[in-house]
Design a protein that fits this description.
By secondary structure, this protein is an alpha/beta fold. 39% of the residues lie in helices and 19% in strands. The radius of gyration is 32 Å and the shape is flat.
């Protein structure tokens, strides 16, 4: 970032003085909340209310306009009717104020109509000509707890004495979504040090704020709720910086469904983009993509409590004070991809010697014995944590009323005083009935989740954050492009793919029946014949393929039929091919995304590919051998091959890398489809039997 940009953001996020244009005494309104919040959170800088109808607000002198404020102003919060916004901004520019938060709406949203678009253009022109940095419009602003600066234009958050600054930063386009996360995080003891809602993002967006947070060592986790991913290069930049700084970036991407995309357009005028490609990009960049608002702060809470997620696979141990919930947790872990390693021999011996009705297992259920002998809770929990080699332990408790919670969990604080391994708790909230239970668990200072399912999700995301951390090398592809065009004939495409090292069965192109007969004799029977039409034509669906040709008579008949059928598709001869051998069909494809560029695909192939829906995407510029193998293994087919024919996984990953590089060099092509590739489980051979470009 330039010095000018940094100065603008500095004044916006941690100013020494602030003016509030349109300020009022009404705490419940957009115009009144900023002054109340600034005072409530103890802002130590100068506050200048601006309103020609007021002489003072909350004991602070009020000024008729920005131009009449006597002191230096670092930033301004503008909470006036839409028609008055531009005049306030012009005054700010005249005074040399470096930044502004525009609370007012009516600039870029779909509901603002053509007039809103005109206002948005006027605002953009002012920003461009003056250099003033603008947050919004259509935003409630920000809450910077780490620096004691909270000018939010809303009063629907926890009071100052109920929140704590913490090592998490939160950047959202939606102010309401941001407020939900902020308040729920604080209610569960997870500190959010900085929360900013960007609104319409006419100037400052969530990714610029992420970049700013990378320079602040006070933040470990950066949480983002985005309606659009914006410029791909900036997302890549953030991912590289986050990895270098050892920070976790977690993103909730809104507008992934068709209806969701329509809602995003209505709200902010943003474009949601292709969700599958975006998910692949986030995964490969090491960004954790979550599905719910609560996922963000729960992950941040684990990072705050446990530190940065390790890259090595973890070992989760579970103590369930209910046999039924233990089985439920085991199912949840299986779906989340979390292993539950067995307990140690030492723990088994301990349980055998000290417990009559408990078995050494993971999940471990001591409930049959502790109900009548609660003093054994401490014994069981301490032994589980000390005698097993687990990196994380979840202690799950059912609904316990006050006296039960005190009997069964009364000593859990002492157990958690020096936790090793990492420790967290879950309970099932039931209003006042479980209030004491929550108080006991919260007093440990360890993460507490409402419901074991929430705990399992958070642990899985914590693990994923560590496992996916990688230094992405955004690759520039070098080399020469081919001469293939979207209308290229099948035989030419086949030859080009073979030049990349992709294995095909022997084949020959025949323009006469005599040439076809010679090809059949050379290749051998049975063989396959295909009209040499544009490769993008679906040959099977249009009767342009003859399978299982067993002799010369059959070949001559097939040649005549394919030649006749091919005339309607400008066929340039007939291709005679040897049969491919294999028990499993897979596919590899490539597509050009308008935002992220060339993408590649691997998955189950054949004629039923649409029904299997078993595929994974990769972004070509991020793809190396290790990432290509991860793409293959992430599918059901790849997992199967990893067990049955592991050598083929590396082969397929190599093809994926080759296709990514070749496709990147050929911008004239929109798509590539190698389907099917036949995998021989006995020999490990991979043979492509059809190829198409578009």
């Amino acid at each position: 970032m330039s010095d000018t940009t940094t100065t603008g953001l500095e004044t916006l996020l941690r100013p020494r003085s602030v003016a509030v244009v349109g300020a009022s005494n009404e705490i419940r309104g957009f115009s009144g909340a900023p002054i109340h919040n600034l005072l409530g959170h103890g802002f130590k800088g100068e506050i200048y209310p601006v309103n020609p109808k007021r002489e003072e607000i909350l004991g602070i002198r009020c000024y008729p306009s920005l131009l009449e404020v006597p002191g230096t102003i670092d930033t301004v919060v503008i909470a006036v009717p839409t028609a008055a916004v531009m005049e306030a901004l012009r005054q700010a520019v005249q005074l040399g104020i470096r930044s502004a938060t525009v609370v007012s709406s009516g600039f870029g949203e779909a509901a603002a109509g053509p007039e809103g678009q005109v206002r948005a253009a006027e605002l953009e022109e002012l920003i461009e000509s003056s250099g003033i940095r603008v947050l919004g419009p259509n935003t409630a602003g920000l809450a910077n707890l780490v620096d004691g600066y909270v000018p939010r234009a809303a009063h629907n958050q926890w009071e100052a004495d109920r929140v704590k600054p913490g090592p998490a930063a939160l950047f959202t386009q939606s102010g309401a979504c941001g407020n939900i996360i902020y308040n729920r995080a604080q209610a569960h003891g997870v500190g959010i040090g900085l929360s900013v809602a960007t609104g319409d993002q006419v100037d400052i967006d969530v990714w610029e704020l992420c970049d700013f947070a990378m320079d602040d060592p006070r933040f470990q986790t950066v949480m983002v709720v985005a309606e659009t991913l914006g410029d791909t290069a900036r997302l890549e930049h953030i991912a590289v910086r986050a990895h270098a700084a050892g920070k976790v970036v977690a993103v909730l991407k809104l507008g992934q469904s068709d209806i969701g995309r329509q809602a995003v357009m209505t709200h902010s005028g943003s474009l949601a983009g292709d969700s599958a490609v975006q998910a692949a990009a986030l995964r490969e960049l090491g960004v954790v993509q979550v599905e719910e608002l609560d996922d963000l702060w729960r992950l941040a809470g684990l990072i705050e409590a446990w530190g940065p997620p390790p890259a090595s696979p973890g070992r989760l141990g579970v103590v369930a004070l209910s046999g039924g919930e233990g089985a439920l947790i085991a199912d949840l872990c299986a779906r989340a991809g979390l292993d539950l390693p067995p307990t140690s021999d030492a723990f088994a011996a301990f349980i055998s010697a000290n417990f009559q009705y408990a078995m050494a297992s993971n999940p471990f259920d001591p409930s049959g014995e502790i109900v009548g002998k609660p003093e054994k809770v401490r014994l069981a929990l301490r032994a589980f944590m000390e005698l097993n080699d687990y990196s994380e332990v979840l202690i799950a408790s059912p609904v316990l009323r006050a006296e039960q919670a005190e009997r069964q969990l009364g000593e859990v604080r002492e157990i958690a005083a020096d936790p090793h391994p990492h420790l967290c708790f879950s309970y099932w909230a039931a209003g006042d009935l479980t209030r004491t239970q929550l108080e006991i668990l919260s007093a440990t200072g360890q993460p507490v989740f409402s419901g074991s399912g929430s705990a399992v999700r958070a642990i899985a995301q914590y693990r994923r954050a560590g496992a996916r951390a990688r230094s992405v090398q955004v690759q520039e592809r070098h080399g020469s492009a081919s001469t293939l065009l979207p209308g290229s004939a099948y035989f030419d495409v086949r030859a080009q793919m073979a030049s990349l090292g992709i294995e095909f069965t022997p084949a020959a192109l025949a323009h006469t029946v005599a040439e076809a007969v010679l090809a059949g004799e050379s290749i051998g029977y049975p063989c396959v014949m295909k009209a040499n039409v544009a490769s993008s034509v679906h040959k099977f669906a249009n009767g342009l393929i003859a399978l299982d040709v067993r002799d010369q008579r059959g070949l001559e008949r097939a040649f005549a039929e394919l030649t006749a059928a091919g005339r309607g598709f400008d066929a340039a001869g007939v291709v005679v091919e040897a049969y491919g051998a294999g028990q499993v069909e897979v596919m590899i494809g490539a597509h050009r995304d308008p935002d992220l560029g060339p993408t590649v695909l691997f998955g189950s192939g054949g004629t039923m590919v649409e029904f299997f829906q078993d595929s994974a995407l990769g972004i070509a510029r991020y793809l190396d051998a290790a990432e290509a193998e991860a793409v293959v293994r992430s599918t059901h087919m790849g997992s199967f091959l990893g067990h049955r024919a592991p050598e083929t996984v590396a082969t397929l990953a190599g093809i994926l890398v080759s296709v990514a590089a070749w496709f990147t060099l050929n911008p004239q092509l929109d798509g590539l489809d190698l389907n099917p590739l036949l995998v021989d489980l006995a020999t490990g051979a991979v043979v492509c039997v059809d190829a198409r470009v578009a």
